Amino acid sequence: MNNFDDLKLYFMFNMLYYLILFQYIIANNFTYSFERNGNLEILFFRINKEESAFNTLAPNVCDLYISFHELFESNHEKTRVFTYEKNNFIGFEILNDFITSSKSLHKYERGIIQCNFELSYILRLSKDIAEIPCVLNNYQFSCILAVLKRLKAVENKRLFEFIKFLIITDFFLYNNCLNIQEIFDWALSLEINVQSSNIILSIIFNFLMLAHVFYDGNLIILENTSEIYDLKVFDTQVLYKSLLVNNIKVFYILENALKNPQILETFKSMFSMLNIRSIVLYNNQRSKILESDFEFPMFKIDGIKSITIIDFREFSSSLFLKRLRKHIRKDLEVLKFQNTYIDISTLTTILKDQRFKKLVLNNGGIPVFFHLSNNFTGLNQSLKCIDFRNVTVDLDWWKKFFMEANVDKIIIHFSIQFAQDAFIMAFGFVPFPSSNNVTYFKVIFDNPQIPTSFFGSLSCLKNLRTLKISKYLVSEAIHSRLFEVIENFKVLKCLVLRKYGYSKKYYISLFKNPAIENLHLESIFQDSEIFIVDFLNYYSSLTKLVLINIMICQSSFIEIFELKKLTSLTYRSCIVEPKINSEPFCLKSKNISLLTINSNNLNDFKTIDLLSNLETIENLNLSLCNLPSGYLSKLSLLCNLSLKILSYEFNSLNLNDLQRMGKLETLEELNLRGCKFIRINFCKLNCECKFLYSLKKLDIWLVRINNEDLKFICNFRNLRNLTLTLSGLDLYALEDCPILLKIYQFSTHVNIADRGFIKLFGCLNEKGIRVIRI
Questions:
Q1: In terms of domain of life, where is this protein from (predicted)?
Q2: Is residue 205 assigned to a domain?
């Protein structure tokens, strides 16, 4: 192709481009030209019509198109409608790039914007939020969000002040007609970070006068920021997130607020945006339930898969739960009652019409007898998981359940002998129809003396992948049967055994299943039988190992540290016998992410190099080991970007240890409780510390600190949880300490005779800080 053909092709493409461009202009009612005025500002001009009222309705879709070219020549006789400057209240990335780029980077000085709404008005709003009208309709609101999205609004404090003004002024205070879903859609379209999304949500909760906290994507709604909440209520095994309503007073507020259709729609959008599919209602103050005709609108939101009710123990809870049963969605997958009083008739009514996949009945320390009827065929067939703790179910129910169930996960915790006997007797009728479906089995016994027949029944669960047995008595009678069963589980990956007593043959034949990858072996009381295992020849596939209260032979002890596939090791309160001098050796696995060693027998570790190979460690716990100063300085430099949690309680530290610690760049939790600092103070970290921005939790309880240490602690910019000893500090000066403006939990001891303590705690409560008294 010659140069003439290239030129023709170039002109054809340009003609096609401008034809499409003019068609777009005709299709849209508003066209604006803009041009760069040096490197200071951008001038906007209207091209094809006079300014119209912004409240004119238009199509549902707010359309905006921007292009840079020289098609429209500068025309200073036209009316200028807006001047954009670098310091505009709301900044736009596209305009900022255009205004600051040189001619070599941006060859055009002009451009056009076509849209189907009055852009000039929105541009003026971006400069002065006082221009926002008292009432906005959905179309106007959509146009504003469209401009923020298409021109890429700069994410900063000003932007969210602007959004806050829109929501409070127009959504809540005036017309209550805006489509709140668009706010969340806009936030998602910009791919803004979680913190910015939380700012949008905080506007809504502040209006409702409720406090809220986010934890790992879960939303916690509180009466006030100092209220205590339990993070253990969240299920970490599911892909979706949870909403925790922390007390009944908060529930009352939400119950009334959600009667407003727009606020209900807001919650629906919020649930969708945050992927909330679970609601946890926690009566943490165990308040009396007031009689009211509850409608439970929150529980009816589409997509809710799980409901958890916790600590409804008062008699008044019964009426509350009776009303709740009428509002449980038919497509609910998970129902949990924990530490809750629920009468059998209410529970029966709930269960007989449902098709749950998971049922959790956990009554804490109070055993409850459920004489459940046999009319649960539909439920039995749908259940995939049961979790019964301190619940007494009779023999007939268990028989019916095992004959009809299609369950794959069983968790049972017994608290009385009768309940245990009923289960074991019914379990003896296996193989039941779905026994091959069970992959997870966990049982905690009340009476540790269990019949050998139980293990015969257990052997029928051929496809078991996880087996956890706790609080059983090892005897010669059950020993051979137990380990014969374990050997025959060909796909078993996880084995947890927590036992009383011992057997002479117990450890020798324990490991006969090389498929096991996760092993937890624990003696409830200290063992007197020596643990002998050939790890390297038979169990090199282990990736997770937990040993607690075990007496282990030295050869097996050494082999543990030579397992190359190990990623997690916990070794707590164990004894190595007999003690034989060995050559120095190191931890062979380079993939360890969790290492917990809690042992005051330093002689067991004097020949082991634990720290130099920890290249990928994320959680390191060497507490209660009475380690000498300088030990931590041996930690591998390769873990500076991986270590998130360091626990080093009751050890000694010197300057070398602090200097090594200071090089950790991603540390989030640091526990130095009870540590002895040798000729240094905690503030010596200041010179080297690289985790000033990442640290969220600090525990220096029982560590002697001074005001200089406290000043240094103020440098941790994102610290949220602080535990320390106040002795030797100026308590009155501490009231104005900057660190207290950032944390949400402060833990220390209490001296009720010291007025300084009382005043300090009052000050902390006023600032909304959760105070934990040690």
A1: Eukaryota
A2: no
Residue with tokens 């190191």: 586
* Pairwise CA distance, residues 170 & 177, whole Å: 8
pLDDT mean over 523-546: 78
- The pTM assigned to this predicted structure is 0.77
652 vs 628: CA distance, rounded Å: 5
Query: Residue 53 sits in which domain range?
Result: 3-179
H-helix segments, 218-294: 248-257, 261-274
| DSSP bridge pairs for 568 | 544, 594
SS (H, E, C) 388-452: EECEEECHHHHHHHHHHCCCCEEEEECCCHHHHHHHHHHHCCCCCCCHHHCCEEEEECCCCCCCC
Q: Is residue 99 part of a domain?
A: yes
* Integer Cα distance of 144 and 163 in angstroms: 10
In a domain, 615, yes or no: no
**Six-digit token string for 47:** 């091209």
What is the DSSP secondary structure assignment for residue 291, as one 8-state letter? P
Q: What is the pLDDT of residues 58-85, one digit of tens each?
A: 455 678 888 887 655 555 557 789 999 9
HSE toward the beta carbon, residue 452, CA cutoff 13 A: 10
Q: Hey, how many other C-beta atoms are within 10 angstroms of the C-beta on 547?
A: 21
Other Cβ atoms closer than 10 A to 81: 18
Hunting for tokens 């379990």 — which residue is that? 427
Spatial CA neighbour of 321 closest among 356, 345, 353: 345
Q: Are the C-beta atoms of 732 and 708 separated by less than 8 Å?
A: no
Alpha carbons 125 and 772: distance in angstroms, whole number: 46
Q: Which token pair is 513?
A: 């299943």
What pLDDT sits at residue 163? Answer: 77
How many contiguous H segments (helices) and E segments (strands) does the chain have? 22, 37
CB-count burial class (<10 Å; 0-12, 13-18, 19+) for 287 = middle
Helix 181-189 and helix 261-274, axial crossing angle in degrees, nearest 10: 20
- Looking at 694-734, which runs of residues are DSSP E strands? 697-700, 721-724
Side chain identity at residue 23, one-letter code: Q
Return the closest-CA partner of residue 678 out of 707, 649, 658: 658
- Closest among 268, 289, 288 to 279, alpha carbons compared: 268
Sign of the alpha-carbon torsion through 412, 417, 418, 420: positive
* Rounded mean pLDDT, 213-242: 87
Residue 728 lies in a domain: no
Residue 332's pLDDT band, with cuts at 50, 70 and 90, is: very high
pLDDT for res 512: 65
Indicate the pLDDT class of residue 404, thresholds 50, 70 and 90.
Answer: confident
Residue carrying the six token digits 């941790």 = 716
pLDDT over threshold 80, residue 603: no
Residue 445 CA neighbour count, 13 Å, CB half: 19
Lay out the sheet containing 80-85: strands in order across: 64-68, 110-115, 30-37, 41-46, 80-85
- Our count of domains for the chain comes to 1
Contact by Cβ (8 Å): 713, 722: yes
- Report the pLDDT averaged over residues 633-638: 94
Please give the residue that has the higher pLDDT: either 577 or 470.
470
Burial class (CB in 10 A: 0-12, 13-18, 19+), 319: middle
Backbone angles phi, psi at 121, to 5 degrees: -65, -40
> Is-contact 122 144, C-beta < 8 A?
yes
The bridge status of strand 391-393 relative to strand 110-115 is: unpaired
Residue 178 near residue 135 (C-beta atoms within 8 A): no
Q: Which residue has the tokens 């939400």?
A: 254
| Number of residues written out for the chain | 774
- Preceding peptide of 297 cis, ω within 30°: no
